[in-house]
């Protein structure tokens, strides 16, 4: 029965069965390509010898040492991992053999820099453009390419960096006799393999070395737990069972074993003091396997298995100990509190007691998102028994459906669920884990548009909100709702092997929106359009062109076709460059470049190739030739700019033809033109392409090309925009007369996950042809999908660990702990690295005897007039000079006419000016007030709620 609290594949029907057998078929469902088999007899060395990695749990130290020695002596060595969870304590030990090579210690892309100058010195000074800070460190090895002048550096030989600076470094190389640097060049970090010499388990137990630390406030905890886990092994060996929960006698025996082990040590290994309180808790919960701990350690160990198999990322070296004692109730637990009830939660009860279990079961929880994080959270909550009581309820919402790419990390879903609503399937799977779970699945996005669904009463009835979102804007909105309704928010996120958790607790911590990561640096528009210098720029341009040609322009054409008179009037009224550009695209789409047959689509695609990758480059290099200079006399084509060369189309180049095929098919889709079968025949397609007539191109004088990095529009306004718009409208009117009645185009929305829809073929083709123009390394379709699709890398191991950490914090929320008990976490499983810290308290604002934070809201009772509201603030020594409701200003002291509103009800002003609609069941409305003190200093006051009923 105890296994039901830790293993999500067990049901009550499996009690009495072999654990491996009970799990096998359900594990196999996760991935048909992976063979899952069971071994139910005593494990022998022969069994182990056929594996590359072995993971042991729940074995004695004696057996573990025996298996570990065999693994080390095996040729080649077998990676050995031992993991244990004992209540709120856990340990992991790794031994990947006497000599294990790590090929990539951190998994990050090699750092690069664009060279600005290289000196002829010993050592040579290398300076790079200030486009981006260099990430090199002293001792790094780098290689050079594309250097003009000092060509000796292009030999591919790794050279050592020293004295690294943000935009320069010294090179351990005498370049005095090298050619003088002229221009260009890219410097790239070379990743070096690292050889690790692991100790055996028997040796590491005696001499563990440095422990991986997770919480610096517990720097003395790992050495103690190193002894405690050995003492527990002795206890079980001697007495044949784990210490009983809340047993003083058993705890005392474990303490004695620990002290005896410590006394046998000498020097730095021996501890000066033994924290008996920690050992009492360790003994009391040692039999239990808690789901949050299993999730966290499962993620950690799973990543170590990947490292051992691949040599990618730095292994855990070698011991890791962790505890979450802060999750325990503050009051001591008595034997009757932890006595088993013969239920699926007995393991959890043995650690936390029956009161906590009852609170969990009656909790009203809201999980926002049913993706990777949401699936893991649901699994954890189901096993913990959260919201499974008569008063409990768990609400989960997600407006997305299941896609095939989700299956690698969203483990509640299967192949047969593709296309179904995520929240519904996840809820059903969670109910299968725990039939007592009270769960409701919704398919609504949590946003201002759904406040009729997630209304005041919904938020008021919640106990805790758990975010499982993948974008910042949604997180900020949920955060604002939690602040408004004073609800705890447990926040988490992942990025590849990295994860973070943040606890947002009313009045105790800052809210999620209080601290923001700096926005990602965006490449200037002129760089993307005319001066790309990396593949990201090319892919950004390619996706922009895809959306412009196949989604926005057809949609704009439909806007004209549906309401032509209104559309023309709007364009004339605007009369600006943006309207002119939109009309030009619509005219191209419906008149000058309209396609009626598939051959027309091929012609359009071939013309686009010539325009994008030949003509535009010829015009650019005509306007700015290779020897062009800036107004200051410096070379125009200096780093990071790369001088481009036009492409010559060739039907024998597969990349050219692939691009033409994708562009033709997608163009035909927008017009509803059938795709002929011969398009898949490369010879017939090439014959059709060869028939397209391409006009000679001659660059023009006086063409303006935007070079200003601050420019936000590539098509600046001109004085004759209105006249051009009038001409375009006349062209459009005459050109669409012969269109069939009711003709509409079919805009195409970019979809990265369908490999048969040609979307990524076109984007990768566009990007690689542009890269070829500028001598930038090209990428395959998968890498292009990753960048252009803006895919956030997500893996199951990190997700499991993050949600395990979140659920350890959930215990604290349910127990109403103080802020010093909570932990925010940043972790990177690739290194591995853990950084846990107490959450930051909210910023406190003071005025006179008053003080408040973001968590406070001032509530004023009564249907006040504006004058009465101003007086209310005046009584607090504050002058309210501006009042707004929603997006509307209802009072500002600088406007004389606003004084006429002083004797009107604030409610009436909100309804008349802000068009405020108040639901019948709501008794209040909110306003934002800007105030200043007697000295004229702005004072940031809380949100004001006026209770008018």
Characterization of this structure:
With 949 residues, this protein is an alpha+beta fold. 36% of the residues lie in helices and 15% in strands. The protein is built from 27 helices and 28 strands. Strands 15-14-13-16-17-18-19-20 form an eight-stranded mixed beta sheet, sandwiched between helices. A hairpin with a 5-residue loop joins strand 5 and strand 6. Helix 5 packs across helix 6, helix 16 crosses helix 23 and helix 18 packs parallel to helix 22. The longest helix has 28 residues. The two termini are 53 Å apart. The mean pLDDT is 94.
Strand tally is 28
First CA to last CA: what distance?
Answer: 53 Å
Task: Tell me the strand order in the biggest sheet.
Answer: 15-14-13-16-17-18-19-20
Largest sheet: 8 strands, mixed
Question: How much of the residues is beta strand, in percent?
Answer: 5-15%
Low-pLDDT stretches: none
Class inferred from helices and paired strands: alpha+beta
Mean pLDDT across residues: 94
The radius of gyration over CA amounts to 33 Å
Global geometry: globular
The number of distinct helices, counting runs of at least 4 residues, comes to: 27
Give helix % range. Answer: 25-40%
